[in-house]
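Changelog excerpt

This revision adds worked examples to the README so contributors can see how folded entries look when concatenated. The first example is reproduced verbatim below.
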Amino acid sequence: MLLQRAAPPTARNAPCAHASSLAALSWPDLAKHLPEWYARVSAYAHAAGLRTGRCPLTVRPGEQALFWGKRKVFQSPDPAGLLAVADWCLLTTWVHRLFESHFVHHAASLERDDHALVLLGPSGAGKSSLALELIRRGLRYLCDEYAIIEPRTLRALPFPRALRIKRETSGRLPTCPTSDPDFDVARYPARFHQRRDSELACFPRPHVVPPPGERFPVRWVVFLTPVPGGTPRVVPRSEAMRRLYETSRGPAPETFRAIAAFTRQARFWETGRFELAAMTDQILAFLDSTKDGTSN
C-alpha cells in the first residue's frame, strides 16, 4: 500500500508494486502503517531542515478517531479518511514552520528536466487539477498548495503532501485507486475543517516525487487567474516581481533581494481558465519554448 516505501518502477506510468486500494484500508492497517507513512514524509521535512521527532499521531480504532498526542483531532468511521486528515494536519503544520526559513507561495509546484515549474494563483484558479494533469503528462510532483523555495539558492523543494482535488475535478480520477498509476486516493471525511468542496486526497506514489534532499532551480512561473478565457501572455519582469512580493511568505529582510534574483532566472506567463486539456497543452508548449531558461 501507499505507506510502504518501494523502489520506483522502470516505466514512468507503470503501477507501483505497492499499489493497493485505500478503500480497503482497515483499522489495523492504519494503526500499523501510520508510522511508516510518517517516516516517509518526515524524510522530506528533515531534508528541508526541520526537526520532527517521533510521530505525534495515533489512531484509536475503538473510538474511530485520530489523536495528536492526547488531543482528539477528528473522528470518522473511515480509516482512509483519517489518513487524509493526518496528512493535512501534519504537513500543513510543517509547512508553516518553513515560513521562518524559506519563501513559501500559495502555489502548486512540479519538476521537469531538473527544473521547477510553479503554478501561482488564488483558490479556485485550478492549480491542483492542472498539476494533476501535468503529472499525467510526465512531470514530477513537488508540492500542492505551497511552493517551498530556498532563499539563498532559489531552488524548489519536494514536499509531497496529498493533492487536494475538488468535486469538479474528481471525475478525472478512476473510481478504484488501484487502477491509478500515480496516486493512491482517499476521500476526506464529511465536515472536516469545513472543506466540503475538497472531496479527494491524492497521495503521490514514490515514483512521481523526487527523493528527499533534491532541489530544483525555478525556471517557469505561471500565474493562473480564476477568470474564464482571456489571452495567455508573457508577464514582464517588473510585474512579476511585484506579484511575487505581494504573495510571498518568508524571512522579511531577504525577501526583496531574493525575489529580484528570482525574476532574473525564471520565465513568467499568465493564463485564465480554459478547458483543462487545452490549458495543459498551452503550458507544455510554454515550457518547451523556454527550455533555454532566458529571462523575460
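The second example, added in the same revision:
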Amino acid sequence: MNAKTFLLFAAIHALFALAGCAAGSSGGGDDDSSSSSGLTWQDPPSSDYMFWDDATTYCENLSFDGHDDWRLPTIDELRSLIRGCDATVTGGACNATDDCLDLACRNDPCGGCDKLAGPASDGAYWPDGMSGAIDWYWSSSPVADDDYNAWYVDFYNGVVYNSYYGTNVGLVRCVR
C-alpha cells in the first residue's frame, strides 16, 4: 500500500472512531457508557459462567477496549443497568442496595417482573443495544450477614437476589 492510500485509510478509520465516540461508545463500540450513572460497562460481557471469586479476579485482570481498570460492579452499580422493572431499578422498592446487604434486605419487590418483558429488543431488563446472555450477573457485593453468598441481578426478569458463591456460577459484566 502506498503512502497516500495508507493516509486515506487512516483518516477514514479515525472518522469512524470519532463517530462511535459521539454516539456514546468509547472508540469502537466495545464498551457501553451509561449516561445516567457515569459508568462504563464491558460490552459484550464474558460468555463464561464463573464462581464469584473467579468473577472478581477476571474483572481485576481484564484488559479490554484499551483499559485495564475494570472491576466487578457493586449491587447498586449493577442495578443501575436495570430498565423497565420499577421495583428493582435504582431507587425502586427492592431494599438490596450497597447500604443494605443483609439477607433481610431482600424484600418482595426484589422478585422482579415478568420474564423477558424488559424494554430491550430481546426482552432483557437492560438498556436496549446492550449485548450478552440474558441471565444473572454477579455483583461484588457479598451478603453482609452470610459468609457464603453474594448479590446478583438477573436480567431475564429483573430479579435482585443472592447466590452461594462456592458452588454456583453466574455471568460477569465488568465496570469501570
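Reviewer comment on example two: Residues 34-164 form one domain. The longest strand covers residues 136-142.
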